[in-house]
Fold:
Amino acid sequence: MNRLYTSLEPRVIDDGMLKLAVGEQRPQEEAGKLAKQEGILFKDVLSLQLDFRNILRIDNLWQFENLKKLQLNNNIIEKIEGLENLTHLVWLDLSFNNIETIEGLDTLVNLEDLSLFNNCISNIDSLDALIKLQVLSLGNNQIDNMMNIIYLRRFRCLRTLSLSGNPISEVEDYKMFICAYLPDLVYLDFRRIDDHTKEVAEAKHHYSIEELKHRENLMQAQMEEEQARREELEKHKTAFVEHLNGSFLFDSMYAEDSEGNKLSSLPGVSELLESLTYRDKFVIICVNIFEYGLKHQEKRKTELDTFSECVHEAIQENQEQGKRKIAKFEEKHLMSLSAIREEVEMPNIEKMILECSTDISELFDALMTLEMQLVEQLEETINMFERNIVHLVGLFIKNVQSLYPFCDDLLCTMAQCRDLENHHHEKLLEISISTLEKAVKGNLDKDLSEDVRGLFVDKNTIVNAVGASHDIHLLKIDNREDELVTRINSWCTRLVDKIRRDEIMRNRKRVKEISLYIDHMKSELDNLEYSDILD
Amino acid sequence: MEVLREKVEEEEEAEREEAAERAEWARTEKMMRPVEVRKEETTLTQEMLRDLEKKLSEIRIPVSVEVPAFTKDTIDISMLPVSYKTNTPKEEQLLQLADNFSRQYSHLCPDRVPLFLHPLNECEVPKFVSTTLRPTLMPYPELYNWDSCAQFVSDFLTMVPLPDPLKPPLHLYSSSTVLKYQKGNCFDFSTLLCSMLIGSGYDAYCVNGYGSQDLCHMDLTREVCPLTVKPKETIKREEKVLPKKYTIRPPRDLCSRFEQEQEMKRQQEIRAREEKRLKEEEERLMEAEKANPDALHGLRVHSWVLVLSGKREVPENFFIDPFTARSYSTQDEHFLGIESLWNHKNYWINMQDCWNCCKDLIFDLGDPVRWEYMLLGTDKPELFLTEDDSGINNEDDVENLDKEDEDKSFDMPHSWVEQIEISPEAFETRCPNGKKVIQYKRAKLEKWAPYLNHNGLVSRLTTYEDLECTNILEIKEWYRNREDMLELRHINKTTALKTDYFKPGHPRALRVHSYKSMQPEMDRVIEFYETARVDGLIKREETPRTMTEYYRGRSDFLSYRHVDFGPRVKKLTLSSAESNPRPVVKITERFFRNPAKPAEEDVAERVFLVAEERIQLRYHCREDHITASKREFLRRSEVDSEGNKIIVTPDMCITFEVEPMEHTKKLLYQYETLMHLKKEEKLSRRQVWESELEVLEILKLLKEEEEVHTLTISIYDTKRNEKSKEYREAMERMMHEEHLRQVETQLDYLAPFLVQLPPGEKLTRWQAVRLKDECLSDFKQRLINKANLIQARFEKETQELQKKQQWYQENQVTLTPEDEDLYLSYCSQAMFRIRILEQRLNRHKELAPLKYLALEEKLHKDPRLGELLKMFT
Structure:
């Protein structure tokens, strides 16, 4: 609480205050007159000064989208707020206020200079977003923990720091500590750090810094690894075959299957599960599907790349033609315009103006023809691409579902998964029934748990149990398959839609551009006409 | 030809057995018969042999008796070594062998001309041609390859035509003599070139044959100068891009195909007519250029060099004409036939028919049917050559020369010619007197040695319009070692355009300067080495009314500036061009795209219409757009005569924006832009003015350089670099003086006395004292002797003078004035001598005790005596 509430009433930033401030700070002299004449829009303002105004609360600043420098020093602000929209801010001065915590700065990624001098801050944090920070002024605050310095290590651009007037600056080791832990720092408390101090500091804190660095490196490596894994998964997802390169599907089949788990404790069933005949085969199929999916993804990608490259080339070519036409026209147009200006005879002028306007409309026709031609050509190409991509997707789905197995000895279809499951189901049923028979005869194994024993009451129960397990398994497989199919189909439709939409947007933009240009040309000609008539 | 070879073997045998006559009869007998007859050898009768002998004696080896090109009396043979004046026994043997061979040959082929085997050398001694070749590897790296070697030979020697163009010369001088006099005929040329080529590892041969008239007379007037031939542009083969899967289809062609075809046909007809006309024209020209037919075509003797493939990575056989240093394919029509060829090991006769020039010849010297060799041992086994053999030969042929020769039954004797030597001066001067002129078809090439011309000119190529070389078309001059780095000057006579090319290093970073006159404000183009300039200027073009500059790599992305000047305003006061610059009418500036700015704010072109007071801006085009924003400022209204406030009005600025934006519509924005532009305009005008100044300065600099033209001299050039020469001489002088001083200090006074003592023993004290005394007394004696000597001379001189005076007084009356004069001059000289002697004597008297003391002192300090003497004193 550096400043007491004085006789002046605390204020909130409002429209009136802003208008006043903007008006005061506009450019001087002729330019100022002009500015006054037409008024200044808040979003054109680049720098704003709001000091000594007894402001308590920051508000109403959202209009200043392009603001680069904001001064709010010497107020009684208690909380940093309302600055979210000022993303272009480079320079922010909040010194001599009553701020207690650093907050609300997460969107100001361009900030380079931040001053929080003479506030009541006790902890440095919430500055993670300010990656470009170069100057940080935190003098005359309540910071008392050295660990805050370590937090500042993440700002690679930080060159100037002021912390004097804080409790930590009283600590004996203060300067050495900072020099050691922030080796890129150039100015500390408005003084240049000389090389000698740096060396001494580094020697002093050598070991702890090494350790810190090691920890940081470890963290970094871990994060990178995580990132890589995420990317990998993302890649699989775009191929719609994520989690198929292992036993995930198989495991998930048994995850919610209580009966199946119970049954697996039956003698012979575990062998059935573990042996190469079922589980391994299942995994192999999954992996095959996975690889097949990746392969197809590659195919689709090359297809898409070729397509976009060709379209890009076509558009470029078309643009070049358009530019050439315009350049040619402009050359001629300029000549005729100056000729008109030179001319004195009224009828001649009219004739020339007429010529000019025909030229303009000719240009319009030529440009529009070019555009229409391109639209037709692109339409054709897009249709072709759509056909191809749909065909590719269809082929992939078909092969995965194996409606038409394209290759007998390769195990890579969902249908094969199902076959396997069916096969397994039959075997399981067999074993169950034989166990039931044994149970009926009363020579069931002693070591079976009560749960399992409960199943072998009559034939219906056991058949139902086995059936339920089988159903769950099939359901899982079906779900996975459905997911794959729906996702790939929706991807396909979205892609084609996007391409078409982009093309339409492009066409509209071009047409708009052409008509704007033609309009401008025409109006220019008209102006000339009028001025001539006036003359 | 098998037969012949065996015969040669036998012949050699016979030679050795000294049974020449009989064997020869027998051999010649055999020679006449074909192979079948050979078996009936024994049946030959004595009569037949006699008959043959008679026949043989009738055969005469014709010997040409022509005067050599440069006659014997011009050559100083007294300095030549013995090998030039006599023949060794082995050489004699070889000559006999050659004679034999020659006789056989003329018998077998009576209709062919006699062989060129052993012409006389400069000392009138017959020498076999192969021994005249002296394979030498030159110490200059430039002379390692055949083309530079040939160029050197052709430059270095002056061509002397053969005494008789239809016969080989009677004399063939050694290469050393030829090099000394820098003159020679084609045989001298090819001998020298062949020696050098074999020395540097080529498989080269001297050829005696027939050449065209142009070739024999070193007449290049029908040849196109190689320097004028433009390098053929390599035709880039358009890579056909495979149409990609989604390449858009071209719009449908709505033109009538029939009409197109008709059009094409018409075009083709026109073209064909044009071509025909051109061809006719060309033929006509060719006809005009064609020379009169040569009456002696195919008879003119010429000598050139043949290089066979295989060694030194030569891919195929070719000829080198030593006169012009040009290489020809073996099929060239200038070469009309080959009689024989030889290298340093052997001699081959061509047995192939030359009816079709040299086009059908096969240069397989191992084939005895086509090439008849002379020596068996050094046969070139080309037919049986295996891969690795040739590989080995390639590498160390030169070193192996002697070794190879040793194992052969009869080897070619070593060359009688002295080592070929070319001094560095001669090598640099090249042409005789450092000057050479070659006349080509419609071109003349002049060459000079470097530093010969004071302006650094080394060669000049003059191209003419017509065959008679009267109308100059263009001149190209090459310079070397110029301080201003001028490399080439190209003068086009028809347009009067001069173009100077500079090497990197000009103080103003000039690269090319083309101009018509050195006056400022005229048509000129100056190109610069832009990396050497701070402002990144590449090129500046000027016409009387405009100036265009091209830039690259500037931080403000300026790429082009074009200035239009108005007519100079006449001022009342007389002023020079600097103080009265031409008024600028228009400045156009273009900029590269600045990637840091968005396209609609990045100016692409800026035009300051100074006279109309307008500024036009054109912005860069955005990537997905075809139109670019434009802005035009009219300043008509706002210029206040008093320079007061400027009133901005909305109609001052005409704007077209591709994507209209809010803030740019504001007057404020426009005002600020305008203010900025005004500042920029001022800056641009200043830069234009600076550019003009720079041009003036460059012109001044060039003029100065042209007048002074200093040449740079490499610091490694010990001969020309005056400074280093002076320095070196000074160093040498110092060294010499130093040496003298050292010798003096090393003079040992004690040496003659120490010698008397037994060596290797330490001196005793007694000995040391004696030594010292001896030395001193000796020195004293010397001093006394010297004094006596001077005294004696003095006395003698005085006596003579007295005698003369007496004589004069006695005969004074009868003396003629001349005698009197003589006497008087004698007197004065004698007096002078006496005075000098007197002075010397006095000086000696003064110095002698000092010298004596100094020696004593020295002896005391002498390390050998010092110790002992100290003890003594």
In short: Residues 115 and 724 of chain B are 56 Å apart (CA to CA). Confidence is low (pLDDT under 50) at residues 18-42, 62-69, 381-408, 639-644 of chain B. Chain B touches chain A at residues 244-249, 251, 621, 624-627, 645-646, 648, 654, 656, 658, 662-663, 666-668, 671-672 (CB under 8 Å). The first strand of chain B starts at residue 158 and ends at 159.
